Each structure stands twice: as C-alpha cells, then as structure tokens.
Amino acid sequence: MRTVEGKVVVLGSQGVGKTSMIVRYVGKMFNHHINPTIGASFFTCKVNLEEARVKLQVWDTAGQERFRSMAPMYYRSANAALLVFDLTQYNTFTAIKTWVNELRRNIEGPMVLVLVGNKSDLENQRKVDPEEGRKYAVNIGATYYETSALQNEGIEQVFLAIAIGLAKLSSGSRDLMTSLRVYDSVSSGLSSPDMPLSPSSEESTTDKSIAFAIQERPPACC
Amino acid sequence: MLWNVNRKRKFINSGKTKVFSCSAMATKETVSVGDGIAEPGIEPGASAETMLVTTDSFEEYEQEMSSSIDDKHMKESTTSTISEIQEEVQDIPVTPTPTSPVDLKKVASPDDPELEDISYQFGQTSLDVDPLRSKAWLAQKKHVFVLSQAGKPIYSRHSSEDKLVTVMGVMQALVSFVQDGNDMIRSVHAGDTNFVFVVKGPLILVSVSKTLESVPQLVLQLTYVYNQILSVLTQSQLTRVYDQRRNFDLRRLLTGSERLIDHLLNFMDREPAFFLGAVKCLPLLPSMRDSITQTIVQTCGKIKNLVFAILLANNQLVTLVRMKKYFIHPADLHLIQNLVDSSESFKSAESWTPICLPKFDSNGFMHGHVSYLAEDCQACLLLLTVDRDVFFTLSDAKQKIVEKLRRTNCLEAINESMNKTSVTTGEIGLPEMRHVLYKCRSTAQFWSPGFQSPYTTDEEVERLLGLYQCLHHRLHAPSRPLKLIFQQLDKETMLAWVTSGFELYVTFEPLVTKPDAINSVSKLLKWIKKEEERLFILNSPTF
Is the pLDDT of residue B539 over 50? Predict the structure, then answer.
C-alpha cells in the first residue's frame, strides 16, 4: 500500500463557502456564523483509496482582496487546487479564471484541479448554468462538482476526486513529481486486510483496525 | 481656531460631593493628605523586569500611542523593526513585503470583478431606512465614524456607512474648513454630546458621544480604531493606496474586518484595560507559570526569527516570551486580544495569520501561528514571527509544547484558573469595598476582582466603568492632575489614588467613612502584595 501526501490549496472569492466546505468535511458540521478567514487555516485529513492512502494537507485561504498578495505563499508547490465559486453569484465564477491564469503562470508541475460550485441549495437563485461550469472545467482540465456545504451534498465526492487525482498523479510519472511525497507504507501488511474495497474516507475505518489507532494521529484540525 | 470648550462635570460643583485633592506639584515622597494617607511603603506587583512597554503617565501613553505612527515619524525613520530582525538573521533572505507593486495594480484597477461583489454585499446589509430619521440610531450613546480625507465613508458603528454619505460629507467639510486656517479641529461640545475629531494620515475618525468619557479618552479610543485598521492593512499600504487615488474606497480592503472594529469598540466599553493602558494576567501559581514559560522557551528557543510567543486564556495573559531587545506595547497586545476574542474560527483550525502591530512596526506584517492549545484547554497560543515560511516549524513546536504542558499538568492548572470565578473583595475580607482596579505602573499590568452586587448587570458594570473613567480623567487631567480623590456619590463612594508605583481606583459602600476607607485600602495593598506572584508576571522571559 502506497501513501501519497499532497498539498491542496483552496481558492476562491470571499464568502463562497471555502471554509464552510472544509469544516463540513473535516468537522462534520455547519456553522452559520463563520468568521471570514484571516490569512489562511491549515487542516489535514486522510482519504483511503483501494490503491493508496492519501494524506491531504489543506490550506484554506482567505478570499478578501487584501490577502490576494499572500496567495502565492499558499499555492506555491501545491499539488492540487480546489477552486470554489458561489453558484448564485456570477462574478465569483469569473474570478476563477483569474485564479487559473495565476496558477498556470506560477506553478510548473502537474496539478489536480477541481472546480466546485457551492451553495446548490439555493437553486432558485442560481446564476451559473451547470453546463457552463462543466464546459469551463473541461477546458482547464478540471473535474466539476456542485455542492452544498449547508446540506452536506457532494462534499465527500470533492475530496475523493482530489485524492484520486493525486493518486493518479503519483503513479503516472514519478520522476516528474517533486513536491508530491510518495512512500510505501511500513504498515501496509498490517492494515491492508482491513482496508475497505471501495474508496471511502478514513474516518469510517478508524475503529476497524488497531494498526490505524496506533499509527495515525487524528486530523490535527479536530 | 480651536473649538474646545471644557465641559464642566456635574459632580464637580454639586454640593454633595467632597473632593480632597492634592496636586502633583506637592513633594514627592510621603505626601500627607487630608486624613493622613501617606505614600505607602509597598508597591505590589512592581518589578524591575517587564515585557511590556511602560509609560509614566496617561498623557504620555496617549501621546506615545499616536506619535510613533505619525507621518512625520514615518519619514524620519528609515528602518523598520521587522526588517531589522530579518537582517540580523543573515542566512535567511529578506522577503519582500507582502504587497508588491504587481498587487497594487490589481488594487487600483476599477474593473476588478470583486468590486461588484462588495457593492452587492453592502447593498444587502444596508438598512432601508435613513438612519438620520431613525430614533434608535439617534439615541445611540456613542457613534464612531471613519471616513477618508476625500469624504468617502469607510466605517460607521451603528448603521451601514453608505447611508451616511451626507453626514460624513459634513464632517469632512468641518475638518477641511479648519485645516484651511492652518489649524486642526479637535472637539465640538453641544449639550451633553461631545464630537471628537482625530485626523491621521489619509483618514478622519470621529466619535460622537453622550457618555461621560473625556475628550482625551475618546481620542485614545479613536486612535485604537486607527491602529486596528493599520493592523489589518499596514501604514505603508494605507498611505500608498491613497497616494495613488485620493478617492479610493477603502472598504474594498477592509471587507471582513469591520467586525474587528465593531468588536474593539464594544470591548473598550466594558474593559478597563484600554484606558488603563495595562494588561490583566490569568492568576496562576508562580511555579506553574514558570513551568509553562520554560516549556515555551525550551521548545522555541532555537527557532530563528520568532519574536513573541503569547499565551492568552479568557483574554488574560498566561505568559509572554519575547526576543531579546524587543518589547511589546500594551496597545499592540490589546489588538491581539481583540483579534483572538472576535475570531471563533481560530478554535477550529491552526491559522497562519498576517498581523501588523502598529506600535512594534506599523509598516510590515508579522506572521502569526494561531491555535488553541487543545480541545480540553481553551487557551490561545500565538507564535509571532517575521519569517513567512516557518509555519510547519511553528506547528511542530506547538504540538511539542502542548504535549509537554499536558505531561506537567499545566493544562489542568490553566483550566482550573480559567474556570474559577474571580475572587471578590468581600472574600478577601474587605466588606465595605465593592470593587477595585489596581494598576502596577512599572509593569503595565493590572488586577481587578470579580464584580459583586450591585454590579451584576451589564448596565451597572458599564456605569461603574464610566465612574472609573471619570476618576481616571481627573487624576490625569492635563491642566491640573490630581494625586488623590475621595468622592461620595449617590450610589457609591469612590477613591482614586496615584503614586509613583501604582494607580488605584476603589469603589466603596456609599456610607463608608474616610478612616474606614483608608484602612481597607491599606489592607487591600497588603493582600495584593501577598498575592503578587500569583496575580502578576514579575519577570520578563526571553528566547
């Protein structure tokens, strides 16, 4: 069993729900009164796939204009970018294009891109057509998802997609990858029998294996 | 032209109050006043070592608060504290300031997609009614407005600022009219309302207050608001955006930070720390505090460029470790406390937060690793550095610190102190004393007991703080500073006393006699002296 460790940066305009998505995924809850992020927050989480264990180091960045100049600090040497916009505000969708251009200019290695339209619960206020989102995603080589952090829809799939993408990246061209850390897990013999056959997030398997309990710290964020 | 009418406080002339005072001009040592209060032999909490920048008097504090960030000073000083530290550590390349010219172009471009975003947001939150016709708005006790020198609204405390374009226009007109005569408008007084103006760099700050706070105290609060804005943007960025475009809309850069100003203003209404210019410590056994401090020193001692490590619990200081040569100003620490207190999100994850400490270096950002110690210990640890690339080093250090603190039962000790209700003066054995503020001047730390009846509601607490502020103003009045005040009011008797070592503000039962009051003050001082190692931080640890 391989372990892949990758850096994920979450980008997007202010108020689109970047922090809400992560808090939903990592903390399994939704907070209606979340403060705007100042600078950036750091989370770690793990996703277990059939062929690899993926550790994600997630940088949740602030969307405010004043932090714009600090973004390079967070996306530098990232292996994946989670580009989030608000389905109900078209300008947050156009802002994604600036982010993509900026990433293209500044990042050399291959990168997993996932485009996410959040707030799908506000269907009646939708301003971004799903087809348009999908087309643009294909255009930039990203996968497209629509989510609702509020109603917990589609969030798991997003992180799963990142994990699968990183696993593929690591198996594809090992020599190209400089920043993605891949190593064979020492505990592979012990833990593999307990591994679920279908991909699932780590949380669901923690109590099945003693090896897990001993070796893995819980995500630092919760 | 100077519009400054000295407002007569009602109680000064009222027959009910008796004021015993002794001017600062009297001989310094063993001053004997009225019924024989003498300069005490003890100075509880005093220490030759301090990690906080201290000032001798309020005037100095107030002046100094604003002086170091004046434009004049900016031009004079060519070095910044942050670059100084960065240069000292040679093997680390000096990182460019976060706002490079490229980003500035971004800031200035009017067709930014985020522009609409912001106008949308403000349109959403604005009230439908004109605030000037709203009784509730007009009845607010204290308004605070921030606008640009061009008259553009930036912030209003009690309603959406874009509804107040005309009012802010009037404020701007007043300021520029007086400026035309090469003068500066400071305050206008109408009935029980004070209008206080502060012009700083490209910004105008105005306070409209019906409270009993004095003009210098309101000026201080506006200076704090200005510093809060600097803390978010830095002085250099603020100056630069206005140099490029005089009618720049600063709200674009401040979105998400209004809540910091809101919180700061509410914080100042209920916290004596601000007008005292002092910081309160979490009471802890000295051995425990030492152990916590040593853990931090040992774990972080080798980390280059780490300037401050600050541990806060319940908004009180647990410990503060600093880089040799550098001190922290209480005003900067207050901004940090405001940030931590107003940001719930720090509880859910480790953050890597840029923060400018205006007194430390108003032109650059420090980077703060901010996190709570543990789920079961809600104390917030801030590791402030000038190096933006050391997040993971600090993150590891934090883990190690928590593990060690857990092993040595320090987390438990912090929890215990956090959960314990503060001791009241009644429990100390001073029945006629209701409440007290004690500030040790040499360390810029203060102590106060828990509130007891009748100060159990928010209103009563605010009223009491108002009384303290009046006393504070009269001790520090620039024209005629006092050393000692004994004042019998309707609902309580107040005593205020300033010596070379401390400032003391005491609330007594209304009918207390003077000898009893003096007697219990000396008892109190003895008690604080006995407890000083627990209540104050008497050393100043460094990395």
Answer: yes
